[in-house]
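Thread: magnesium ion complex, take 2
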Amino acid sequence: MVGDIERILIPRDKIAQRVREMAEQITADHSPPAMPDGDEITIVPILTGAMIFCCDLIREIPIAMRIGLLTVSSYPGSSLRTQGSQVLSQKLGDVRGRHVLLLDDILDSGGTLRKVVPILHELGAISVKTCVLLRKADRPEASDVTADYVGFEIPDEFVVGYGLDYNNYYRNFPDIGVLHPDAIERRA
Ligand code: 5GP
Ligand code: MG
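Output below.
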């Protein structure tokens, strides 16, 4: 697997450090005095890609939280560009009257957040904030989509690792990197 990665874009220690910083910011924004009506949030990782990011982030946020799950697919199989986001399943629990923080691995075209944020509002969340580990720079399609927390801006390249997949492989690669073209062919 390691040989399939052509280039590491973000090594694991940089990811860990940035995840801790994001957790600190999120904790401050969801505790008094920033949030006088309580210090509780509902975290909703968008699966499967945000799985590892979520596990690391939430263990650095020492406030009361519930977890809801949402599975969205936008790159089915060996696609390298979004095929449109589709909600495949949800186990959100009751989000009525709750402050929701959506987590995604990467913000690219914005299609996923554009689809999912209104769903949470329709289900009665009082507030919906968004947090992405990566955001691809210079994507005009996503100019209307806000992410309240962004870990890293990256160039417009297809990346894998730390939860991000190619055809459901490489999620367990601990760094974030770019695949070798041979691997793209072999794992298609
Ligand atoms: P968007 O809907 O904003 O276009 O893209 C968000 C979703 O597409 C992410 O949740 C992620 O699953 C997938 N995605 C976007 N860019 C990449 C990428 O470079 N690599 C991988 N593995 N998935 C991506
Ligand atoms: Mg995803």
